[in-house]
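Support request, please re-run this one:
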Amino acid sequence: MLDFGMPQVQQALCACLLATAANHAIAQVVTAPNVDDTEFGDSLFTIVEVSPAFPGGETELYKYLLPAIRYPEAARDAGIQGTVFVNFVVEKDGSITNANVLRGIGGGCDEVALKAVRSMPVWTPGEHKGQKVRVRYNLPVKFTIKEPVPPLIDTVAFIDPVMMPSFPGGEAELRAFIKANLRYPTEAAKEEIIGDVYTTFEVDSEGNIMDPKVLRGVHPSIDTEALRLLNAMPRWNPGMLNGKPVRVQFTLPIRFSPK
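Re-run finished. Output below.
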């Protein structure tokens, strides 16, 4: 998760890594859409074999966003803190489109985070089965009011070794788990409801799934099933920082379709 804080006694933007959340929890995983394996066309993916990437990697993404994100004065004065979840699409040419706020906190923070995302340079596009494809991406940006922190160069050096948590066996096993355990609710099936449930949860230092929530739902019965699925998951491989397991926030869109 990207964490942007405003010191009480300093107008300049500072950033730090919280002990309970890694700064770049921005990976996405979900069942792939039902498309032909050889001709993807304009199909939109949320999991691919090669994920799209900001030029230079996640550390460079952090460096880009640091000056782009300014804690709004109104939000600071009102004591508004929290996480803005921004969703966007990385197109086949790497351009950023369809950026929107999944869940905001107000006070001008939503607009600041959204503007920064929309102004990002061209990414390296995602690939699936050797083809460039459109990929949906989530970026959580955390706004916190905190005391001054060490210089930026030290902060970036501290972030660099972070490794994201992962499902045991990797993304292929996660897809297999979802396919085998996901139950399409009868009530939703009758109405032929199709859509993506956006969920968030924490993977603690022991790999346990903690505090699962629905960021944006589709239907009450589908949302409940998404949470059931998360709670049924085995332990993950925890995220690592400087060789030690840490607590990391993760976002997971889960696609529901009767097919």
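The helical segments are 58-68, 73-77, 109-118, 152-159, 171-181, 186-190, 220-231. Confidence is low (pLDDT under 50) at residues 6-38, 147-161.
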